[in-house]
User: Fold this.
Amino acid sequence: MKKSHISVMNRSFQVLDQRRRKLLKDHETLKLKERVQGIRAYSMDHLEELLEEAARNLEENGVEVIMAGNGEEARGAILDQLEGEVLVAKSKSNTAGEILLSEHLEEEGVEVLETDLGDRIVQMHRESRPSHPIGPAAHLDLEMISRIVSDYLDKEVDCEPRSILEAVKEDILMELPNIRVGITGANSVAASDGALLMVHNEGNISMISLLDVHIILVGIDKVVSTLEDAVSVVKLETIYATGKKTPAYMNVVSSPSKTADIEQELLKDMYGARRVVVVFLDNGRRELLQEGAESLWCIGCGSCIVNCPVYSVTGPEFGYRRHLGGRGVVMSRYIEDEATCTDSGLFKCTLCGNCTRECPLEIPTSQIMELLRRECVEEGLHIQEHRVILDNIKKRGSAYRD
Assistant:
């Protein structure tokens, strides 16, 4: 990432940090934090039974459920649902970014319309990578965004936030009537209710959920026991991610569109989706559960990167695709392999533990990374500069050459 983008990103992070600091010390937030820690720990301890319960109840509600072992299976399953579509609408989804879903669909001739403002700006730029899980365009300043949008839309857009918003919104709304399939992620899955909870501030998921087919891609780690638990998780995520107590929207989806307003006869396909398809993604999560379960407690708030000394210098180069920072490095080991983990920034981490202090779940990421370093070194994977230092110590008893 360019130095100018890093500078803008850090300014954005400072604003976010200041906005949420008071809330983080609030008594209600501390109670919520403790509650969610219990929810996530229980969920990971009982993942398989909760996942089975979620799939069963979703299917009873009329939702189609697909279990995908890896990214390739998930991409294939989603492509199968498109039935020749050449344009789909999509909301922000870090899980979709994990498996490079948009890139794969475009290679298969399916254009993807990002409906989240930040993701749409990044999509227009092409040269950018998302810099925050909630605010993907946090590294771009106003002038740059105005130029990106103007170039993409081939018209002059004023360097002013409202003008940019209106231009992007108009472009998206012009395309939506031509789209039949929408793809979203989910923040939490309530097993006992057979329901999925999605949070957003822009209203775009509400529009996508009204398309003919609604495909929801979600990691198996997002399963919790009840809808009440799911709401607690997303409330805490919102506080840490945006500095607000609640998001503008919470969408609960538990079935396709239906009504029973005519003599209580159940009729499907009213205003919303005719079909709802949920793709549960493993992609290394079960293996990670066995070796470093705490990483799966993550609620996706991005708090760990806001004050990370490494991320503040390197940006998304420290992390794996949409899993940013140290936790993304950890995830890369199980999604891919040790070599990918090394390339994602395993040896860049200072092991300062700031990510754990900032994390609402207090995930010990730096400790897990230290264990992974040992594993990678045993496999012969290391930084070349470290090998030079080691050789100097062996030969001269000093890390220095001469």
Q: What stands out?
A: The mean pLDDT is 91. The CA atoms of residues 338 and 376 lie 6 Å apart. The chain has two domains: 3-281, 302-388.
